[in-house]
Amino acid sequence: MRKIVLSTDNKNKLREIREILEDIDVKIYGKSDIDGMDFEVIEDGDTLYDNALKKASAMAERVDCAVLADDTGLFVNALAGEPGVHSARYASEHDDKKNREKLLNNLKDKDDRSAYFKTEIILIDEEKNIIPIEGVCPGKISLEEKGENGFGYDSIFIPEGFDKTFAEMSHEEKNEISHRSRALKNLRDKLSKL
Ligand code: IMP
Question: What is the spatial distance between Cα 9 and Cα 99, in angstroms, rounded to a whole number?
Answer without folding.
Answer: 23
